[in-house]
Automatic annotation (TrEMBL):
This is Chemotaxis protein CheY. It comes from Photobacterium gaetbulicola. The keyword Phosphoprotein applies. SUPFAM superfamilies: CheY-like. It comes from the Bacteria. InterPro entries: Bact_response_regulator (IPR050595), CheY-like_superfamily (IPR011006), Sig_transdc_resp-reg_receiver (IPR001789). Residues 5-129 form the Response regulatory domain.
Length: 168
C-alpha cells in the first residue's frame, strides 16, 4: 500500500490541532502534516515530493497571512505533483465570490464551514480519499484501501472497471 499525504493548512494552531485530532484514525495509513501558512505548506509539499509521498488530500483555510487558501488551491491545481489531490476548503470566512472562483477553476472538491462536526469532517475526508484512490490507483492497490476507505464505492468502481474492460 502506497503512503499518501494529507495536508492541513490553517493559521490558527488550535484549529489545526482540532483537525488533526478529527483525522487521527487515518494516521496509521496516511502521512498527516499540518502547516500554519501557505509558505509552510509549500515547504511540507516540497519535502513530500522529495520523499515520493504524493498529496492525496488538502484541507485548507481561506483567510491567512500572505497567500489566501483559495489562491493556494488554484495554484495546486496547476502543478503536476498536486493536480490530482482532492481539495477541501475548511473556513468560516470565504465569501461567495471567492468560493465560486475556486469551484470554477476546478480547484475545490468540497467546502466545509467552520465550526464543523468532527465525525462529519472525518467522513468527508474518507469520501474525498476514496475518490482520490478510485481515480489514481490500480485495481490491485485499490483493493488494499477497502479496509480503510469506503468499501462500497471501491467495489462499485472495481465492478465498473471490469465491465468497461469486457466491452473491449
Amino acid at each position: 500500500m502506497n503512503k499518501y499525504l494529507i495536508l492541513c493548512v490553517d493559521d490558527e494552531r488550535e484549529v489545526l490541532d482540532s483537525v488533526l485530532n478529527d483525522l487521527r484514525a487515518l494516521e496509521e495509513y496516511f502521512v498527516i502534516e499540518a502547516a500554519e501558512s501557505v509558505d509552510e505548506a509549500k515547504e511540507v509539499l516540497a519535502d513530500a515530493i522529495a520523499d515520493h509521498t504524493p498529496l492525496a488530500l488538502i484541507l485548507c483555510d481561506h483567510i491567512m497571512p500572505g497567500e489566501t487558501g483559495i489562491d493556494f488551491l488554484i495554484e495546486l491545481k496547476h502543478q503536476e505533483e498536486s493536480c490530482h489531490a482532492r481539495k477541501v476548503l475548511l473556513t468560516g470566512q470565504a465569501g461567495l465570490e471567492e468560493t465560486v472562483q475556486a469551484v470554477n477553476n476546478a480547484s475545490l472538491d468540497y467546502y466545509i464551514a467552520k465550526p464543523w462536526n468532527g465525525d462529519q469532517l472525518k467522513q468527508i475526508a474518507i469520501d474525498q480519499l476514496t475518490s482520490f484512490m478510485i481515480d489514481n490507483e490500480s485495481e490491485a492497490e485499490l483493493i488494499t484501501w477497502m479496509q480503510i476507505l469506503d468499501t462500497n464505492r471501491i467495489m462499485e468502481a472495481l465492478s465498473h472497471r471490469r465491465l468497461s474492460l469486457s466491452d473491449i
